[in-house]
Each structure stands twice: as structure tokens, then as C-alpha cells.
Amino acid sequence: MTDVQDELPELPESYEDARPRRNRLAIAAAVGCGLLVTLPILILAVYGILMTLGVFPDSKAVPGSRVEARLRPFLATHGLLDPDEHIVYYYSDAVFSYEEDGNYFTDKRAVSYWTDEDEFCVEAAMFDEIIGIYGDMSEGLLENAMITIERKGGGEFTLWVSGEAGGDDEFLRLLKQRWRAATKVDQPQGSGK
């Protein structure tokens, strides 16, 4: 009987040298593909956690108690929140900073602010300056509701509110409720809900 080893032809040296290299390339490719899949998921998870903690604006309208402590200094600096005033409901269309965009109402007023290039812009009205509140509600998850605030003497502005989790309906309902209570408006005005 002959040894099986003796019957196998010898492989060229270049083949033996390439085999470990191919294994390393396969492992590197697998790790690279794993990172390409895992890294975006990890980034989204961290962003979601930071959004939940209030570091980044939430993707839906939220009760003011969730954001007021973080926003009070910024809003007070711009004269948009008095010391005795409290945010009832808030929504920001911004991704990373509350200072880029915000739509909210307090127990006294409705406010929309945004940054246009480097300019800080504000539209606001105290409840006694408002004659109508109208809602054009969102039809889908990625669409914002437009809540129009009509001022006495003419002029209007829009509050943009996400429809996620029915937040736009709750925002509009509570806004109208606060406005009616503050101004003693008995009958709903306009075509809103």
C-alpha cells in the first residue's frame, strides 16, 4: 500500500501563499459588510434614545412638560415665554436642535419660530389677539398638519404640527380649548375641528 501523500501532486508555492491571503480577504469583507449593515442601525438607535431623552426634538407633537425645562432659557431670551407662562403642547420640525424650529402654544399665546438661513423668525399671537383657529390636518405620517392662526385686524400665520400618533388632532383640540377658555369664545369659529 502506498502513502496517499506520495500520490498527490505538489502545489506551486504561489498557491500555498495565496490561500491565507484569501481567507483574510474573506474575513475582512464579511466584517466590512457587517459594519455597513450594523452601523446605520446603531446610529438610528442612538438617535432614537437621544430623542426620547429630549436631547433632540421628537418626531411628534408632545406635551409641553416634556420640553419646557430644556426650552425655557432659549424662549425667554427671545421674549417668547414669560416666567409665569407654561408650554401646553410643542412640536419641532427640526432634526437636531430645538432652536432651529418650533411650534407651540402656552396658556396665553400661540407661537411659531424658525431659522431662515441665519435669521431668527417669529410669528406669535396672544389669545386675545386671535379671532380664528383653523386646522388643515395631515393625511399621512410624513405630512404635517397646518394650523392657521387668524389675528384681529387681519393677518395670519401657520403652526406646523406632525400627525404622528394623532398629535396634530390633540394639539388643535387643546389649542382651541385654551383659546376659548382665555377669550370666552362660546362657538367654534372657522372651519377647524
Order of adjacent strands in the largest pleated sheet: 1-2-3-4-5
Name the helix and strand elements from N-terminus to C-terminus, one letter apiece.
HHEHEEEEEEEH
Average predicted local confidence, pLDDT = 80
The major pleated sheet works out as: 5 strands, antiparallel
Oligomeric state: single chain
Straight-line distance between termini: 95 Å
Determine the strand fraction and express it as a percent band. 25-35%
Structural class: alpha+beta
The percentage helix is: 25-40%
Number of strands: 8
Gyration radius (Cα, Å) is 29 Å
Query: How many helices does DSSP assign?
Result: 4
Parts with pLDDT < 50 across at least 5 consecutive residues? none
Quick overview of this protein structure:
With 193 residues, this protein is of the alpha+beta class.
Written account of the structure:
The protein is an alpha+beta fold. It has helices at residues 4-7, 13-52, 68-77, 167-183; strands spanning 62-63, 87-91, 101-106, 109-116, 119-126, 130-136, 144-151, 156-162. A hairpin with a 2-residue loop joins strand 4 and strand 5 (119-126). The mean pLDDT is 80. The protein has a five-stranded antiparallel sheet, with helices on one face. The protein is elongated.
